[in-house]
Design brief:
Blueprint (H helix, E strand, L loop, with lengths): L3 H4 L13 H24 L38 E5 L1 H4 L26 H5 L7 E3 L10 H10 L4 E5 L2 H4 L10 H18 L4 E4 L5 H8 L3 H7 L5 H4 L7 H26 L4 E3 L3 H4 L17 H16 L6
Parallel strand pairs: 1-2, 1-3, 3-4, 4-5
Helix pairs in contact: 5-7, 7-11
């Protein structure tokens, strides 16, 4: 029986082998369905322009941008095999054994004395043969790049840094190292190390709280006499005076030390192999027994032992690596 639309047509259908129009319509519909199915399959497999990446991984947002690279992770080996130290008189053990002289055997970082138990002794299997002390008494942070150059030549697993006290301990507050210069010098020291020894880890100690040291020694007659000879006058001049000008001067020094420590923390955070002590040395309250009998300022042997303990705790502490 003819289709209804053919019945309405006054022209008779052509005779011959041609298929009826229903077959041609069905073929067209089948072609369309196959095409649509192919497109759907392509989208599902990530082949569509906005469907995924070249590996066929479908992304939820349909973005054509490459996936973001993961952030670099911090690297920290808590068991180094060698160690070099840079910094100032504290790391040299100045005034810990005798008046006005270095005593590196009691250095918190590289000393060999049993009663100090230095960081090198706590960390290394060969503390005498695999540790080096390039700190210099009286050094400021501007001297660090040269010290780092010497340390890097040994390609140590770790370098310890304790510097900044002398930048604040000047004859006057006006002579203290500016914060911008302090940052530039410390940044350069890390660059020097990284250029010569990229895989060396850096442990950075905070600058001690000089105002707290003043508080510890200001009532001691010996400390007052020694300080009067000229040590750290920006903080220790006229230690008994509570005049407004002297209180303001001490606060300026304190604020500068806080600023230095902020710089150390910020710059260290940019280096994936650097660890700052989170203010452990700055926060520590040295007792009179932990200060030198000769100057009431530098750490005694007991103070050096305590510094070694603090550093060991911070270096071996587990921290997030992200």
């Amino acid at each position: 029986m003819p289709d209804s639309h053919e019945a309405a047509n006054t022209r008779p259908s052509r005779p011959g082998p041609h298929r009826p129009r229903r077959s041609r319509t069905a073929a067209i519909c089948a072609f369309v369905l196959v095409t649509v199915a192919g497109l759907v399959l392509a989208v599902a497999c990530g082949g569509a322009p906005d469907g995924g990446d070249r590996d066929g991984a479908q992304r939820a947002d349909g973005s054509t941008r490459p996936p973001a690279k993961p952030s670099p992770r911090r690297v920290w080996d808590r068991s180094p095999a060698s160690l070099a130290a840079v910094g100032d008189s504290i790391t040299r053990g100045f005034d810990a054994c005798s008046l006005l002289s270095d005593c590196t055997r009691v250095s918190w970082a590289t000393g060999q004395a049993d009663d100090v138990d230095s960081l090198a002794r706590r960390l290394l299997s060969d503390p005498k043969g695999k540790s080096w002390n390039y700190a210099v008494s009286g050094a400021v942070v501007a001297d660090l790049p040269q010290q780092m150059r010497k340390a890097a030549a040994k390609e140590p697993d770790m370098v310890t840094v304790m510097s900044g006290a002398n930048d604040a301990c000047r004859p006057t507050v006006e002579q203290m190292t500016g914060v911008a210069d302090f940052r530039s010098d410390f940044r350069e020291s890390l660059h020097v190390l990284r250029s010569a020894s990229p895989s060396t880890q850096v442990y950075v100690s905070s600058v001690p709280d000089l105002k707290r040291l003043w508080q510890q020694g200001r009532t001691n007659p010996l400390g007052q006499r020694v300080w009067g000879l000229g040590i750290c006058q920006s903080m220790l001049k006229d230690p008994q005076s509570m005049e407004a000008a002297d209180k303001q001067r001490r606060q300026q020094v304190h604020d500068r030390v806080v600023a230095y420590n902020t710089v150390l923390e910020q710059e260290c955070a940019k280096d994936l192999r650097c660890r700052y002590d989170d203010g452990a040395v700055f926060d520590y309250r040295f007792t009179p027994a932990e200060l030198s009998d000769w100057d009431w300022f530098h750490p005694s042997k007991e103070g050096q032992r305590r510094l070694a303990e603090l550093a060991y705790q911070e270096i071996t502490e587990k921290r997030p690596t992200g």
